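Fold this sequence, please.
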Amino acid sequence: MFSTNKQHNWLIDFWLLGAVLVLIVIGLTMVASSSIAISEKNFADPLYYFSRQAISISIGFTVALIVFRIPIFYWEEYRIQIFILGILLLIAVLIFGREINGSQRWLSLGVMNFQVSEFIKLAVIIFMAGYLTRHAHAVKESFEAVIRLAIPFGIMTFLLLLEPDFGSTFVIAIIISGLLLIAGAAWRFFVFTVLPIASLLVIMVITSEYRMARVTNFLDPWADPFGNGYQLTQALIASGRGEIFGVGIGESVQKLLYLPDAHTDFLFSIYAEEFGLLGVIFLVSLYLFILYRCFIIGRRAFYRAEFFGGLLAYGVGIWIVLQAIINMGVNLGLFPTKGLTLPLMSYGGSSALMIIVALALVFRVDYETRKKELEELA
């Protein structure tokens, strides 16, 4: 139904693997290109940030190989412990964490600063996949089965907002909503689950002058192009300079200390400047293709009654593409600044490492599904 006999001999999805590797190569290239000036200025080494990103990705691949060898049922069995570990890490980061740009989100691990919210995203997907697998029928029929999630996720949301990390809170809320919908939860349940979280975020924005400024500045950054709107105006200038074909790789002007965070949250603008509209279309298509392959793997797992694995694949796909959409939207002035990386592209060791590990779980789901198909054909 899903593949030919020849394709059944492949025990992993090489289309997905190829797309991920292409994205990583483009990401490393752009980190090198966009960070040359700031690396030279801060560390007298033009490849400082590139080297650190390459190390993080290498660590990610090493951990991913270990994760890939662990059967999926172990993740389902220990889903609660994994989520509790995430909560404990969120508490630890508030006590021992490192503060950067007014947010306390990082734990120092010596070789790198680890952003705990990246781990909690994966922990939420694993926990939700297990919960929805065990309570599949109840979630469709009973509001009580949905509202029981309010306690663990309420604690998680409270801790994330203390950092504060609004971007990750929003992404996790959408992932949870997406998985509930895939599991068949009724739309009316979301009024009592998503609405309170959304209302809390709105109240926190309205009551804080700093947060309100971040939310409203993107609406008209040109009103204060050298003040609050400086970063966004520089990002828009970079995107505009790219036109159709781009100025060429390595030829960006905005990365020369004009655009703050050019190698992190605003790497997409430098990419748009160097590769142009055609490059942007290719990048968007690449992310959508990764989503498509994750959903194919999820559907195949569902077809084999492997609901936990299927929900894992769906959740990881939603995570990657949702975060990509938000990051691109921020760079183009469509959304307020969220502090979210462009997955597997922006400089950020924690994000790259955890997404690679999450994809290893997706590949494991695919491996087990294909292996069962082969056994049935034998």
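Confidence is low (pLDDT under 50) at residues 1-8. Residues 1-69+229-372 form one domain.
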